[in-house]
Amino acid sequence: MGIFKRLRDLTMASINDLLDKAEDPVKMLNQFLRDMEEDILEAEAAVAKQIAIEKKFKQQADEAEDMVNRRAEQAVKALEQGNEELARKALQDKKEHQARYDEMKRQYDIAKTNADQLRNQLDEMKDEFNKMKNKKDILIARAEAAKAQKQINQAMSGFGTDNAAKGFDRMSEKVLQLEAEAEASKELRSSSRSLDDELAQLDKSDGVDDELAALKAQLAAKKQQQ
């Protein structure tokens, strides 16, 4: 009977406490069902033994009852043949088998009552196990959803905090500073290039003046030859 009490205590009282204390409800549920399966197998073995006892007493009671009926018939037959002494022996033996039958019948009734009770308890445990098995997927889905929500909440906990906002402000100021420095560098480079261009223009010639001077020199030389 202890195995059934342990199963009943597990299924009805301990499960909530076990799940509350479990770090991983999914693993705990699977382990809990495995433990229940093992206990049910042990309980089935215990019930099978009780059923075997019940059948044994039933067989012995049936055998004793058959002998009671046979000796009664034999006693009648012996009297019909005028053998009173043989009839007396048959009735004496019938009385002994009757006593054995009464005892075996009493033991069988007790064994059957115990077996029926164990069968019912085992059926209750199996029903409870099946209910828990059916609930397992739902509970696991809820546990996984809760863990996912917790992870998201933890990941988002730093969003929008003062430290993050100040960090973004500092980075924005840094970018503005870099942009201003780049613009100033561009202006300085442009100013320097314009001055260089003006100075270079002083020495720049398109070649026309040189060509004109060459022509003048040729004409002068030609006049001298005339």
Automatic annotation (TrEMBL):
It comes from the Bacteria. The keyword Nucleotide-binding does not apply. Residues 26-225 form a coiled coil. Transmembrane segments: none annotated. Keywords: Coiled coil. Pfam families: PspA_IM30. Signal peptide: none annotated. Belongs to the PspA/Vipp/IM30 family. This is Phage shock protein A. It comes from Paenibacillus flagellatus.
